[in-house]
Amino acid sequence: MERKRAYGILIVSFFILTVGSGCGYSVYRQAALPFKDIYIPPIENKTLEPKLQDKLHKALIMEFTKHGVQINPSSGTTLTGTIYTFEMFTLSVKNDTTVEYRVNAAVNFTFQNENGEMQEIKDIRSPFIVSFSSSEALSETLANRDVAEEMALEDVAMQIVGFLIYR
Question: Which of 13, 55, 75, 102 is deepest in the core (most CB within 10 A)?
């Protein structure tokens, strides 16, 4: 009986040590954020792909809000962005028809803090491979492409927000 109890204590201690250390995860309170609010003017789209700027703007608002930063048009903190690259690459072909694509978007940002200090953050891209499959139905392919565009731009938003808040 004594042996089982010691064994149980050992397992619980190991579990607490494992969970409590080394994972790199930490919790930030809103008071610890480098800024409480931000203004995000309309994003500039220098690509030929329509509506990317709206999708990125929406993704940035969602990501900042998720991290406790309020969107405020009168904020002294500003983030501007320019989408300069949007690419689709063929991943796989079947019967001389592309059946899977990879989506890539690249964005340059300029961050201005409340003191007016500016920082350029160049070439932010999705850290993940975002792909979508095509089908014979054009409407389904276009819907899949739209979802892949949104996912790639959400990844870009996640990258820049993480960089600005947790650096």
Answer: 55
Predicted TM-score (pTM) of the model is 0.79
- Bridge partners, 110 (sequence order): 80, 120
Nearest to residue 128, comparing CAs of 165, 91, 99, 158? 158
Exposed/middle/buried for residue 13 (C-beta within 10 Å: 0-12, 13-18, 19+): exposed
- Count of beta carbons in the 10 Å neighbourhood of residue 123: 10
What are the mean pLDDT values of the chain's consecutive 10-residue runs (167 residues total)?
67 62 52 85 97 98 95 97 93 83 94 96 90 82 89 96 90
